[in-house]
Queue: 4 jobs
Job 1
Amino acid sequence: STMKMVMTIVPKKFAEETLNAIIEAGFTATFYETRGGMLRQSQTTMFSAVRDEDLVKLLRVIAPIGSDENVLHRGFGIEKQMVFYNGTVVFIWSLEDLPNLFEPETE
């Protein structure tokens, strides 16, 4: 099955509960503190690789059903960008199969 890379940018005050929810749901996340935006606020950026069939489950963990604003945008190289109710932003990329690095190169 194909995979998606989900990058979740969470305002600092929601970071711990979001990270805990992702882990409790059985997903993994690599995370680090980031700063950005016009006001240079502090956020936590999280990366999770998930199978296509688990994507909806992960997104429901990040933004529980009932949140009002799910704004979808499209951008270069990005499948979707979602802005959630608490200021969380989600970017989703498709992960394609890696080439076989042991095959001889063709001229």
Job 2
Amino acid sequence: MKENQHTEYKSGFNDAVIETLVAFANTKGGKVFVGVDDKGKPLKNFFLGKESIQQWVNEIKNKTQPSLIPDAEITKIGRKEVVEFSIKEFPIKPVSFKGRYYKRVKNSNHQLSLTEISDLH
């Protein structure tokens, strides 16, 4: 499966994951898979700690405005466990991350212009 309007692959959890979730929330929703390469194949060196998912969800909630709380679950791809974050289109827009607003266009995130931000408001 390839990255597209509603799917993104990340090798690890970082700010780019949160940015993508914000972009999905400001458009039509989507899923971010953490622990996979750009082609969607699980990484051999990706490991989950006991509290990883809860810490990540808290970080997402704290760094977004209004606060996003995505669904997070462990998914198996082959024999390897990865994390799947999913978010629906958010009813209150626009959602920001670190004071910036993003939208999803095809398979990438784009920062919103001031006009686009006011139109979403």
Job 3
Amino acid sequence: MTPEIIERPAFSVTGITILTKPLSPEIPALWPKFVARESEIQEKTEPSATYGVMRHEPPDSLLYMAGVAVSPDSRRPSGMVTCDVPAGSYARFRYPLSRLGQGFWEIFDRLLPSSGYVQSPGFMLERYGETFDPQDPESLVEILIPVRRNVPGLA
């Protein structure tokens, strides 16, 4: 599998966040809590999609949000946060839900290093699109990693 490099416009996501560890069981446990409150969010810009928004926090934590894309000026329900995701280049991969954790390891251990791209600062995204079915372990999830070309000597 090789990554597809795409350009994404800036967008905002509103949802529920946790500070956890990568691949923690707290992440899938967050989704039913979010789904129970999703109807409180107005002005969705992608009504049939949800997002997992992630950023590593030093020393070894992960900030994870379950949310939906919203208009930048939409009202935020109590207890939720809004995250602004900047425009940029992303490497896009698709994995079945049942292999999502394995997919992240494969991306960072093998696929991204051999792609000619490196991860750049920013949020990593999981996009659960229009055809995603949480009851189907083979349902595909998009993984989007912010990237830039790997230029030797450029840190």
Job 4
Amino acid sequence: MSEVVSVIIDGKKYTGWESVEISESMESAAKVFNIGLVSSQVTKGIVPGLPIKILLDSDVVLNGYIEKRSRSIDSSSRSMSISGRDRLGDLIDCSVEKKSGSWSKISLLALCEEVCKPF
């Protein structure tokens, strides 16, 4: 039984991609992806910053954003790849949103909830 991989970018489902790679590690925390698209796709509107979901059958395995787009053109073919991270990347890149002061006498769970509240 083969599993079906779906790629949804900014609410639009794309098919005809050449490759989909998702990796995760303890060092990077966020899942990262790289997708190779074939030249027959209409790819003009695919730009960094757009939301992306990658599904395996009907299960969402990555929910994130496109961070980079690369194009390759030669005499016989055209291709494009997009890469990025899941939404945890926002938390990794952020600064804590606290107007002033510090935390004291707070549980680890409460601290994590406070820091992650904007996400």
